[in-house]
Structures are given as structure tokens and as C-alpha cells.
Amino acid sequence: MMNPHQYTYIYVLALIFSFADAYGIGANDVANSFATSVSSGTLTLGQATCIAIVTEFCGAFFLGSSTADTIRSGIVNVNRYASRPELLMLGMTTSVFASAVWVIFATSRGWPVSTTHSITGAVIGMGIASFGGGSVKWGYDGVAKIITSWFVSPLAAALLSSIIYLITRYLVFERGNDSFKRGLYAIPFYILITVWVCIAYIISKGLPGTKQSKLSFGHIVGIGCAAGAGAALIAYFTYVQWLKRKLGDGEDLKWYHIPFVMFLSKRPIIPELTPEEIEAAAEKEKEESEALIVDVKQMSLFEKCRYYILRGVKQDVRNIGNPKLQEIHARAKKFDNKTETLFEFIQVLTACATSFAHGSNDVANAVGPLAAVSTIWSTGKVPGSKSPVSAWNLAFCAAGIDLGLATYGYHIMRTLGNNITYTTPSRGFAAELGTALTIMTASQIGLPVSSTHCITGAIVGVGLCNGDIKAINWAMFVKVFFSWIMTLPVAGLISGLMFAIIANAPQK
């Protein structure tokens, strides 16, 4: 039996590289969850970052252990390492290193790659380098299952998002003067669906340190539906009434009036902006955007520190004034602004659901290999297919995801922004809800889908609902698709070469 503490240095390296991989996941993948909310103007980049830090951490910490098993032991046949567990420690360490290197490099270039692709390719590469192709589970119980998800997830997300958007479009937006009134009725319904799915998903998954819920499917659905109905009822008597009075009647209401709006007397009417005031507001927004371009050399030490700390959330990522995208944006049909505004809150809610689902699914890309190394270091044995994942492993990698988003996530958010198609709150909410449903379903069955694939497919699906194929920036889509193809072999090559060199190096 091996002396596991002889390889403590490998464990330490695995901790460092797993955190780096989690950092890359936050910088690259988390932008997917809130890209449509920022690009539509519903949230600022800073607001999206603050919300995502909470939702990503909660999803990763509370529900991230299921897919970690698939990443850790669902790709390579770990039984081959039973006589030499230290090789699996080394292999998982080189895998998470290769994944981190590729994802962070791709992020620096503005390429929205799949972190699931990256770790999968890295594990395959080290498996081939250690015992040849036979050590990899190529069948549907391993690689084939994951590869299938790469094609199914964008199509499923596109289909779900298109259905949601088309229903909203024809039942709400295409109703002329009644669109605002219909939108007020639609908001509680969508809140019901979002809360229903999230609550049912959380109950079925269970919390760390507890067993998966033993409730029947019917009970889980019933509890989720009851919670969703309660949230929808509260929303109808608070948020919906606030929207009706503020947007419909033009009353001067603040956000903190929402909980007790039913008890407020009629407020003063806000006069509509004149064309000159609208133009002045646009000019002010332009000046604020230009103010983001600063000369660091002219700053004091304190200003430099503040600039670099907040730099990741002070970027302009919307691409609204990009002349290269004007023709694409012009092909998207525009609807009543007031009705679109109704969907801002529900878009934030669905973005939170997507981010929560992303954290629960994609934290496995960093924590899966780390959990394998941690188990071997603790026991000296190769872990079983369903060995537990430590809560501190999940928290450690979840913190890395949050840090990556806050400091480097603007690169990918700028790429996804409005670059693929024109985004509004209603379009963004449909894409995010479809993505959340796809990711949550996949995470529930332990299938590590790519959030990049899901949100990209969802955005394209919603964009095609304009009825004009030229409403999609196909050049950007091809670029994204090419990055998907490149990720698997590049990460596999880096991991496999590193493992082969280290494992076969002369020993004292």
C-alpha cells in the first residue's frame, strides 16, 4: 500500500491548479449566465457580478457534488490505477493544470470556450498517456455520454428558449395596445415556473452531507409548484401592482415601495421625457462610457489600487454602438418599450436560476479532479465511483469561480454581449430560462453539459424567432463553435504530454 503523504506536494499542486481552473471557469463560463442581462441593459456589469458571486457560490457549494463524480470517474477507468494510486493523483493534477492553462488563455483572447470540454479532454489525454486508449471509457457510460450532451444541450436549449419566447411574443407583444396589460398577467406566471423548477431541483438534489431526497417525483413537483404559486401570488400583489402604477400610470414610485405598494396612496405623475432630454441622457451615457478609458500613469497609488480592484466590473461590454453589428440589430423586430421593461425583473430572476444551475454543474470541472486527489491523499486508495466530495472542496473551488468572474469575466461578457443577436429583456429572459431548464435537467442526471453550448444555442434559437436568418451574427457563432472543437484536443495534448514526461522521468 502506498504512503499517501509521500505525495503531499502533488496534493498541494492539485489545490493550486484546481483553484486556477475554477478561476478560469468564473472568468469564462459565468459570463454566460448574465451576458444577456447586461447586454439588454437590465443590469450593469457590476450589479451582475455581485449577484452572480452569490448564486454561483450557492449552486456550487450546495448542489455541485453530483456531477463531480462524472468528471472524476466517469471518463477514465480508475480501476486500472488500483495498484498505483499515485499515478491517478498525478494524472488528475496534470489534467486540472492543462484545463486551467487553456481556459485562462482562451479567456484572455475573448474566446468563449467550454470548460467542460477542457477538463474532459485533459482527463482523456492523461488516461491515454498512462495506460493507452483502453483506459478511457469510450462507451455511453463515459465519453460518448458527454459528447452526446455537447450536441443535445445547445439544441435542447435553443428549442426550449424558442418555445418560451414565441409564446411570449404572440400572447403578449403581438397584441398591440393590450401588450402591456397582457405582460402584467404574464409576469406572475413566469415567476411561478422559475421558482417551481428551482425549488423542485434543490429538493431532488439534496444538500451536502445529506442523502438525495427520497421523496417521490410527484411530491417534489407538488412542493415546487406550491412554492412557485406562493411566489407568484406575492409578486402579483406587490411587484405587478408596482409596475402597473409606475410604468402604466407614470407614478413616482421607488423600488422600496414594492412590498407595501397596495397601501400607498396615489403618487405624483412623472412627466415624460422630451426628445431633448432623451438625447441629453444618451450623451451622458456616452460620456460615462468614455470615462472608463483612463490613463493609469496619471493616477495616485490609492487610485491605481482602486482601479485594478474594480477594473473587472467597470468595463463597457454592451456593444450597442458597434457599427459592425448595426445591420444585424436592425433585423430584430422591436416591441413596446414599456412591455419590454416588464420583463427586466423576471430576466434577473431567470439569470439567477441559470447562474445557480451553472455553479451546481460546472464546479465539477475543477472539484472533480481535486476530490480524487484529496481522497487518495487521505486514504492511499483509488476512490470509488460514488465516494463523497468534501464540502470544503466545493467551497474552495466556488470561491475561485467568484474571483474569476469579478476580475476577468468582462472579456467573455463583451464577446457574448449583443454580438450574436440583438437582445432585449424578453429575449434575454427566454434564453436564460431555457438555458436554466437544460442545465438543471442535465445536472440532475449527472450529465456535465456545457453552459457555453446551452446559452449560445438559446441565444441563436431566440434570434431565429425574428424570422430572418441574417439577424444572427454567424461569424461570431462560427468562432464560438471553432473554439469548442479546439478545446478538447488542445487540453488533452497538454495534459497527456505533461503526464508522460513526469511519470517517465528518472527517479532517485
Automatic annotation (TrEMBL):
Protein family: Belongs to the inorganic phosphate transporter (PiT) (TC 2.A.20) family.
PANTHER family, sorted: PHOSPHATE TRANSPORTER
Principal subcellular localisation of the protein: membrane
UniProt record, GO biological process: phosphate ion transmembrane transport
Subcellular location: Membrane
One Pfam family here: PHO4
Membrane topology: Multi-pass membrane protein
Annotated function: Sodium-phosphate symporter.
Swiss-Prot/TrEMBL keywords: Membrane, Phosphate transport, Transmembrane, Transmembrane helix, Transport
InterPro entries, per the entry: Phos_transporter
Keyword Transmembrane helix: yes
GO molecular function, one term: phosphate transmembrane transporter activity
Species in which this protein is naturally found: Smittium mucronatum
TM ranges: 7-25, 45-66, 87-105, 150-172, 184-203, 215-237, 480-503
The protein's name: Phosphate transporter
Source domain of life: Eukaryota
Recorded GO CC terms: membrane
